[in-house]
Amino acid sequence: MTTKKGYWIAMIEITDPEAYPAYIASNGAAIAPYGAKLIVRGGRHEDPEGPTGNRHVVVEFESYEQAVACYHSPEYQEVVKLRHAASIGKFVIVEGV
Q1: Best CA proximity match to 43, nearest among 57, 33, 30, 53
Q2: Pairing of strands 55-61, 87-95
Q3: How far apart are CA 41 and CA 21, in angstroms?
Q4: Distance CA 94, CA 97 (A)
Q5: Which pairs count as long-range contacts for 23-31, CB under 8 Å and 24+ apart, including other chains?
Q6: I need a labelling partner for 15 at 20 to 30 A (CA). Which of 51, 69, 81, 82 fits?
Q7: What does the pLDDT look like over 5-61, one tens digit per residue?
Q8: Confidence at 2, pLDDT banded by 50, 70, 90
């Protein structure tokens, strides 16, 4: 049986652009041990069906289980406080096809 990849998908509205870079600078070290691969990190976007925030991120993991474990790790939970303080948004962990 092949393990399906896992993904983090985030649609973020940055509310404090001066504080948000601290999250960007810190999250790499927290997610790297889980084999995280950034697929989308910012970049141009279009909102054809309504507002989705001003920053979009997709992170790929080798498995859904790794994606979940990374999110709940003590290291990421410490870093995610920086994102929560500087933004609001939607965040989902999803299994690939």
Answers
A1: 57
A2: unpaired
A3: 13
A4: 10
A5: 23/79, 23/80, 23/82, 23/83, 23/86, 23/87, 26/79, 26/82, 27/76, 27/79, 27/80, 27/83, 29/75, 30/70, 30/73, 30/75, 30/76, 30/78, 30/79, 31/59, 31/70, 31/76
A6: 69
A7: 999 999 999 999 999 999 999 999 999 999 999 999 999 999 999 999 999 999 999
A8: confident
Beta bridge partners of 40: 58
Does residue 42 contact residue 56 with C-beta atoms inside 8 Å? Answer: yes
pTM greater than 0.90 (yes/no): yes
Q: What are phi and psi of 5, to 5 degrees?
A: -70, 160
